[in-house]
Amino acid sequence: MSDESATTDAAPIRLLIADDQPLIRRGLAMMLGAEAGIEVIGQAADGVEAIDGALAHRPDVIIMDLQMPRASGVVATREITARLPATRVVVLTTFDHDDLVFEAIRAGAHAYLLKDATEAEVLDTVRAVHRGESRLSPSIARKVIEQFRAFPRLPADDVGGNTGAAIVPAAPTPPARRAAASDPLQEPLSDKEERILNLIAQGKSNKQIAASVFLAEGTVKNYVSRIMEKLHAHSRTELAVRAVERRV
């Protein structure tokens, strides 16, 4: 069964669209609302409306612009993901500046697309993040990988077989954030959890991690959930950021 058919049979993806440009906001609502398995349940013209709308309607997915009045998309994303951890945020913006990219990821965004993305790419990303995946535009992925390469390599026994498929590193980390990365409020990770975290940062899937550490895939999934709780992360993307920060 195709993803589209599965989506049609299941409950629709409840979508909120936040963008301060009415033409873009309404255009996205019309385009995505016409798709099978998607229900647009609200629109927001700024960050404050996005937060209020999310809390009122509890959407499955939010398409979020970054530069908006009253509260930015980063601020709105941080507030929403903290209060509604089940809601997933897709950033859709014209800006690909390093600081915005990494701040959005740290705030809890599950995907980062530029507004030159095709309709099919936006639709596919909405469905992917609803399934629990993370997505980056190709140009954003290149930028992220360049930042990742600026950091020391992992030991040889941790590198083998890396596909680089979903690497999401952090930007150069200032001293204050480095201290936060070893925040005493965070529970320490076991050796096994540290290894799994490093494999997540390499873009490995749960299945690939299971093969690397000789565990069942379901056990790896439990480990990932426990690591997310310990590091206060909202997504695998944010876990990858945390992994790089811990090595700086």
**Can you tell me the number of structural domains?**
2
The overall average pLDDT, rounded, is 77
CATH class of the largest domain: Alpha Beta
User: Would you give the CATH topology of the largest domain?
Assistant: Rossmann fold
Instruction: Quote the distance from N terminus to C terminus.
Output: 44 Å
> Could you give the count of β-strands?
6
The helicity comes to: 40-55%
The Cα radius of gyration reads: 18 Å
Q: Main sheet: which strands, in order across?
A: 2-1-3-4-5-6
Give the helix/strand class. alpha/beta
- By DSSP (H or I, 4+ residues per run), the number of helices equals 13
Outline type = globular
> N-to-C SSE series?
HEHEHEHEHEHEHHHHHHH
Q: Can you identify the CATH superfamily of the largest domain?
A: Response regulator
- CATH-derived architecture of the largest domain: 3-Layer(aba) Sandwich
Main pleated-sheet profile? 6 strands, parallel
Top keywords for this entry?
53% helix; single chain; Rossmann fold; 248 residues; alpha/beta; globular; 12% strand
